Structure formats: C-alpha cells, structure tokens
Amino acid sequence: MPLWKYSIVAVFFISLSFFLQDKKKKHLEYSVSLEEKKKILQQLNQEQISSESKNHLETFKEMQRSSPVLQQANYKVLAGARPQEKKLLTMGISSVQRPHGSTLLHTLQSLFEASSVSELNCIVVLVHLSDPDPKWLSQMVTNISVLFQPHIEDQELLVIHGSLSGSPVPGDLGHTNDSAPCEAVYSRQKADYALLMNFATSLSEYFLMIEDDVYCTPKFVSTIYWALSAWKERPWVIMEFSSLSFSGKVLHTSDLPRLTAFLLLFPKDTPTHLLLSQFRLLLAQHVPIHFSPPVFYRVGSYSASEDSCFPVEKEMVFGEPDNPVASVLTDMRTVSNVIPQYAYVLNDECYSTMDPLRGNTLTVILEKPQKVIRIEVLTGSDTQGLYRLQQGQVELGYGPLPDAEGCARYTLLGPLVQGNLDQRVFYEEDTVEQLSCIRLVVLASQDSWLLIRQIRVWTQPEEEER
C-alpha cells in the first residue's frame, strides 16, 4: 500500500476525535433521543487518546492555527481589487499553463454569461494564475483584462498570483521522482489550491471550487444560492453540484484554513481529490450531499501525462425513474377522492391537501428494501410554483416496521429547495443495509393548499450491485 494511504488512515483516526468535539452536537442521527445524545457525548468526552496520538493531534492542531507553510505565501494582485464588502460566494479558479493551451478564458466567459446582474452582485470570481512563467502571466492578464474589463471594474473578478517561498514542500517541483510523474502533479495541485483558498478566506461566506476547463449552466448561481439557503441551519461540510473531481464543490470559508492545513499535511504523492472526501469525513459528514442535475461540465481535457493521475470523470446517466412497488401513508388531511398513492405513481395524478401542519408526514414504504441511488420530490404547480411545500425535508428510512407502518429510524437526505428536492443517495462505506422508506416531513404549517406533484425514485440495477 502506498505511503499516502497509510498517512490518510493515520491522520483520519487521529484527527477525527478532534473534529467530532467541534461538530458532534450537529451530526447525530434524527432517531437519537435527547437522553441518548447526552450519553453519547459523555462517552466521547471520556475517551482517552494515547500519548503518541495526542502528539500527532497537537501537531495537526498547531498546523491548523498557524499554517507555517502559508505564512510564507506571497501574493500579487494582477487585475482587479478586493471587494469592498463581503460577498456570499467566492468562485475560486486555479489555472496553470498547459501544453495543449488554456481554456480559462472560455470558462470565465461561460461563468459570466450564465449569471444575471443580480447574481453577479453576490459573488466574486477569484482567479489564481499559478504558473510562474512571466510571459504566460503577462499574456493571460492582458487577455483577461481586455475581455472582462467591466467585471474587473465592478469588483466581480479578481486575478492573483501566489507563491510559496522558503519551503521545499509542497510546492517544490524540483525534487520530485521522475518515475512517479503524478507526484509532481499532486504536489503542485495541493500548493495551488492551498494558496487560492488561503487568499479567499475573508472574501465571502462560502467558497466554490471551479477548474479552469468547465462549462456553467444558466442560473447556476441561483441554484447554489437556494441550496445554501435551505441548508443554512443544518450541518454540512461539502456540497457537490457536479460529479467532477473538484469543480462544483462548495465549502464554508470558515473551513478553508482547516482544509489548507490538511492538504499540506500529506506527502507529495497523495491524490488531492481523495483528500477532499477524507476531509469531509473528518468533519463528520459521512455521505456526500450531491445535487442533481449537475451545473458544471468539463469541456477540456487533461494532458496525456496528467490523464493517468486523475480518475475518469463520467456523469452518471440515470434514465427514467423506476419507482419500485410501494405503499404510501400520510397523516395529512385528504381531499375528496385524492389518495396519497397519487404522489408516487409515475403519471399526471397529484396528491393535494389543505393547510398542512408542522410535523405532518407522507411516507413511501417500499415493498422490499432497495438500493436507491436518486430521489426527486416535486411540489407545487409545474408552471408557477404555486401550492409548493414552503418548508420541508426528505428523510431516508431503515428497518421496516411490521404491517407496513413505516421504518424504525430515519436520517436526513436534505431539505426541499424552493419546494423541490433532487439529490443523489449515497451510503456509508461497507454498508449492506438498503432503503425501506422515503419520508416527506412538513417543517412549518402553511395556510394554503399543498400539491405534491410527484415523488420519483431511481434504483441501482441488480447486475450493477453485484
């Protein structure tokens, strides 16, 4: 096993205790009672870490506080200026000179064309030109300044160059092993992203990672905004708005110092994209939060030398939903001949109810446990969004109760975003338990009709499971 894998495992278990103390109250399952929570917290507080682990943990905590490598970071603003006020979202792009040419300008053009004036008011695009070649830097800055001058003047675009001085790791590419070409790629990538995120910590409330070779779908800023609003009072570490290794991942800027310290902690041959998922686990987000459909797609390609260093990025094709056989129960007030099953059948029938109350539920009880991979819940009218569920969430149920009465325990999949939900479903590693219930929960009473237009479910084919 490569050294970096041992390093990840070691730091994972050492750091987990530290991060859990910071996040533990927010990440317990919904089925755990208050008394049980107190017992769990007491047990966590009573756990003892060996003296060796404590030494490693203190080292990591010290790195998190001071980040000595980044204390030697030097930055030069090449175009634009820091926004005068803190924004909602920083879109961070790190770009380097590539043999086959840069696609950065196309990415920036796509980003700005896909965003309205009001959307641009709440973001800042931070571009880190990381290649030290002065000729390339000069040409890129000239091109950006000519093409995007209005966005630079409006403080919507900021271009910087960052470097690490006086430190052999992780940005020193002169000491990499020629027999391990990916070592140089990962080393440079970790340094570039660390410098980018280190600069971005004070610019906004949230940080979005974008690579320099992506296409952005229209209104992607609003898609992210409404998701952030729905999740604002819930614990999360990373939200994913694409299936790409880096692009589309959103974090709190308050977590960026931790992430930069984490990236710089590992050896040069550690794949950067794997560290992101390990970081999420360290902060107790056990499964990804992945929204569908994606809002970022790759339009470029890596060089031949880089292709072997990154996983193949292929967007999953779902096809049509296959809603498995299930019954539907609800404690909402049923109107005339409308039955709850209408919410689940794949046709034009809908389920409607009047004045839903906080705590009301509609539960889909699967006839047999299934490996569900995506769930979409649509409420409100199709055209104007009237009669949508104003505040609600979807929960995943496990352990079916007798007589099809529901499930023994539930975990959160996610809140509705503008009355809808469309999320991938992930399972903790090595789990064998499958889904038995899907529960829609009303979080606030509303004095209006509620229309549950459709609950759509995709399951993993049996041959893929094997």
Plain-language structure description:
- The chain has about 475 residues and is of the alpha+beta class.
- It is built from 13 helices and 19 strands.
- The strands form four sheets. The protein has an eight-stranded mixed beta sheet, sandwiched between helices. It has a five-stranded antiparallel beta sheet with strand order 11-13-18-15-16, with no helix packed on it.
- A hairpin with a 6-residue loop joins strand 15 (about 390-400) and strand 16.
- The longest helix is centred in the first third of the chain and has 21 residues, at about 5-25.
- It starts with a helix and ends with a helix.
Which key features would you list for this structure?
five-stranded antiparallel β-sheet, 26% strand, alpha+beta
Query: Roughly how much helix do the residues carry, as a percent range?
Result: 25-40%
Give, in spatial order, the strands making up the sheet with the most strands.
Answer: 1-4-3-2-5-8-7-9
Computed CA radius of gyration, to the nearest angstrom: 24 Å
User: Kindly, what is the distance between the CA atoms of the first and last residues, rounded to a whole number of angstroms?
Assistant: 26 Å
**What form results from the Cα inertia axes?**
elongated
Number of helices: 13
Major sheet summary line: 8 strands, mixed
Sequence stretches where pLDDT stays below 50 over 5 or more residues: 16-34, 36-60, 167-178
Name the structural class: alpha+beta
Beta-strand content: 25-35%
Q: What is the residue-mean pLDDT, rounded to a whole number?
A: 82
Overall strand count: 19
